[in-house]
């Protein structure tokens, strides 16, 4: 842990106290409440509190009497004495990824509601950070007879990465924040329409800006919920769409990730990758084996497509254009046609 700070926030309903812990790397955290509902403990596994102070008394007394940090057996314990009894379900504990552009490290955040407080902040009707990503059309697309023959009756699960409280990677256009979650959805929706027009049955892990499991869920719970959508639908293929990021803004390219859990996972990744490289002028970062959660825990052949880097200026301009999401969707569609043609 490199820093500890807190603030009172009025942009929630109810308002809340936010505790933020800066970290040198991602950590595993656990949280629990005692039976009285007045003592919250968050454990940061394999973490040192470093030079951070041990006690914090000057916090917002409407929610927190005081907080302490201590170390035991290589773990750091955050103990929070609450002013009034609360339920664990009302406490939010979540991680934030580092943002090199904003010089932000890994962070663990704890949000504690202020009992009885009323919201005094009115959220703008439209956030200034909302990227200008064109909404895809729900029209019927013209698809080839070959595509219809190959895809008819196939069940395909599309997973637009992130969503809701999880923005995913963040890029920038001028002073605007561009969220990965918005771009992935802008690609998945026209891909859904293409597949549906060809006679496939499409199940979406999400079709709007929302979490799949629920707001502020931990990564494993959220990712398993996405796998559950595909597994319960008995999908024939699972396609997770993501946008990559890196501290070096010159890095760019398309990568297809697979896990060799079945005979066809590699083939699906190869076909999806080749189709995007064939139709789009984006650098090629190859087909790579990886143990990404959604690839490992889906019962069917699956691929996680990183379709460019949101931290690359040229790519983020392209991905937020009016034409690129539909073109990307078309290339992914072509990859699925090639895959199902090959296995038949």
Automatic annotation (TrEMBL):
This is MurNAc-LAA domain-containing protein. The keyword Transcription regulation does not apply. InterPro entries: MurNAc-LAA_cat, N-acetylmuramoyl_amidase_3. GO terms for biological process: peptidoglycan catabolic process. Keywords: Hydrolase. It holds the Pfam family Amidase_3. The lineage of its organism: Bacteria, Bacillati, Bacillota, Negativicutes, Veillonellales. PANTHER family: N-ACETYLMURAMOYL-L-ALANINE AMIDASE, N-ACETYLMURAMOYL-L-ALANINE AMIDASE AMIC. SUPFAM superfamilies: Zn-dependent exopeptidases (SSF53187). Residues 227-337 form the MurNAc-LAA domain.
């Amino acid at each position: 842990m490199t820093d500890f700070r807190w603030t009172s926030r009025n942009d929630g309903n109810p308002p809340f106290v936010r505790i933020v812990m800066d970290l040198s790397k991602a950590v595993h955290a656990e949280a629990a409440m005692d039976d009285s509902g007045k003592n919250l403990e968050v454990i940061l596994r394999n973490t040192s509190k470093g030079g951070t102070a041990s006690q914090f008394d000057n916090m917002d007394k409407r929610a927190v009497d005081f907080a302490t940090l201590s170390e035991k057996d290589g773990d750091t314990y955050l103990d929070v004495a609450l002013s009034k009894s609360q339920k664990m379900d009302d406490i939010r504990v979540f991680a934030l990824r580092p943002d090199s552009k904003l010089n932000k490290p890994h962070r663990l955040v704890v949000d504690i509601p202020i009992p009885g407080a009323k919201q005094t902040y009115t959220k703008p009707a439209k956030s200034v950070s909302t990227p200008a990503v064109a909404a895809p059309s729900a029209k019927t697309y013209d698809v080839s007879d070959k595509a219809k023959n190959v895809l008819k009756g196939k069940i395909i699960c599309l997973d637009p990465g992130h969503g809701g409280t999880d923005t995913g990677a963040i890029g920038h256009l001028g002073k605007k924040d561009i969220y990965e979650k918005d771009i992935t959805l802008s690609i998945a929706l026209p891909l859904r329409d293409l597949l549906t027009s060809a006679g496939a049955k499409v199940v979406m892990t999400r079709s709007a800006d929302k979490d799949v499991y629920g707001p502020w869920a931990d990564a494993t719970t959220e990712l398993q919920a996405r796998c559950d959508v595909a597994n319960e639908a008995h999908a024939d293929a699972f396609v997770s769409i993501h946008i990559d990021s890196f501290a070096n803004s010159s890095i760019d390219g398309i990568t297809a990730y697979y896990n060799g859990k079945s005979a066809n996972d590699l083939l699906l990744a190869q076909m999806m990758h080749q189709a995007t490289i064939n139709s789009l002028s984006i650098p090629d970062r190859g087909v790579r084996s990886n143990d990404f959660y959604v690839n490992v825990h889906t019962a069917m052949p699956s691929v996680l497509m990183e379709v460019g880097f949101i931290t690359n200026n040229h790519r983020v301009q392209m991905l937020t254009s009016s034409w690129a999401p539909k073109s990307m969707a078309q290339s992914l569609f072509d990859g699925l046609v090639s895959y199902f043609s090959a296995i038949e």
